[in-house]
C-alpha cells in the first residue's frame, strides 16, 4: 500500500504546528480547558450524587 498521502498530511500538520507555535498553544489551551471543564463537571456531579445519597 502507498502511504504517501497520509505521510504528506501528517507532515503538513507538523510543519503548520512548528511554524505557528503560538496559535497551536492557544488552541491546545482552549481544547484542554473545554475537556477538563466537562470532565470536572461530570466528576463533581457523580461525587455529589454519591455524597448526598439517602440511606
Approximately how much helix is present in the residues? over 70%
> Cα-atom Rg, whole angstroms?
20 Å
Report the strand count: 0
Span between N and C termini?
A: 61 Å
Overall 3D shape: elongated
- Main beta sheet: strand number and arrangement? none
Structural class of the secondary elements? mainly alpha
Low-confidence spans:
none
Strand content: under 5%
Whole-number average pLDDT? 86
User: Can you count the helices?
Assistant: 2
How does this structure look, described?
There is one protein chain. By secondary structure, the protein is mainly α. Helices cover 85% and strands 0% of the residues. The chain is built from two helices and no strands. The relative contact order is 0.06. The mean pLDDT is 86.
State the gist of this model.
This protein is mainly α and 55 residues long. The chain has helices at 4-19, 21-51. Helix content is 85%, strand content 0%.
Any descriptors?
single chain, 55 residues, mainly alpha
How would you summarize the topology of this molecule?
Elements lengths: L3 H16 L1 H31 L4
Amino acid at each position: 500500500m502507498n502511504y504517501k498521502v497520509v505521510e504528506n498530511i501528517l507532515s503538513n500538520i507538523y510543519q503548520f504546528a512548528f511554524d505557528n507555535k503560538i496559535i497551536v498553544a492557544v488552541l491546545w489551551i482552549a481544547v484542554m480547558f473545554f475537556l477538563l471543564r466537562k470532565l470536572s463537571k461530570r466528576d463533581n456531579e457523580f461525587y455529589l450524587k454519591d455524597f448526598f445519597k439517602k440511606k
